[in-house]
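To whoever is on call:

I kicked off a structure prediction for a single chain this morning and the downstream step that reads the tokens threw a length-mismatch warning. I double-checked the sequence; it's 336 residues and nothing unusual in it as far as I can see. Pasting both halves so you can look.
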Amino acid sequence: MDPSDDAIAVLSRVLRFPPSFFSAGELDEPTQDHASFRALSSMTATQRHAALAAGALAIDFTRWLDRRFELPEPDLLDLRGADPEAAAETVRRQWAIGEKPIGNLVHLLERSGVRVFSLDEQCREVDAFSLWRHGTPFVFLNTQKTPEHSRFDAAHELGHLVLHRHGHGGCDGAPDLREEPDPKRGRRTEDEANAFAAALLMPRRTLLSMTPRIPTLQKLVEVKKVWRVSLAALVHRLHRLDVLNEWQYRQLCIEITRRGYRTQEPDGLSDRETSQVLAKALDELRSSGMGRADVARALHLPPSELEGLLFGLTIAAVDGDASSTSRPRGQLHVVR
């Protein structure tokens, strides 16, 4: 039974969503089985539901954009079962970047058809998550973390998308029920995604050639700046590559913690990676007279919900003022 107009009015007032949202049709909301949540056991049900609800809104927004623009087609390899280090090397070859430092990982993800969105403040405790939905890969980043943290999170989620894609909904969004339940699977897949991320961002051969013989903390700060990663991630990677023995690794970790570098990155990145696809789409819409408030209205959303998906990934602009942000280079193809 459809809710009455009075019930919709109450829901609209309490939830602060426009009345049209409740009659716009059911959203395609992913389930917990479809998403690559990290540390699922430590998440509250509220945090999990908020993240999945954000996923549903992003899927709906993506479909809305797909009807208006020719966005990059998904082009990720299925590397299920591959060694994470070898998988990272394969992805680098596919992207034709050799062993160079990655300048902007979000741009590379979008070029391969990954839809990248932000997690708003309600999902502050969720680092990131990813999923496949009907053949489209999605990555959700907590843009309130440090830029280095977000880069590693993006690489981690890419690892899930290419290494565990069938375990997170496959291409059609349905869970893969062919695999037998494995109580250790969650920890194993997280370790694999972490190893993939480290290898993608810090390729072995070039990293080893740049590592000083006496890896002091000060010298490692200079190395991590080249690779645009956190100092802790670099130290962990060098330990995994046997450059640092157990004693050296522990001492460096203690020093990193003592100096507060786990929360305040030394010589940290000043620029956060942003989305080209979302920026170009919004710029094109704005140039045709459709501001963010109009987009939110077309999606039957309050503007705050749309901003939550875009927060930290686009430069905010005042609706109707095309000069308030620079026009990104290149244009998306508009669907006629």
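Update from on-call: the warning came from a stale cache, not from the record. Cleared it. Sanity check on the structure: Residues 167-183, 317-331 have pLDDT under 50 and may be disordered.
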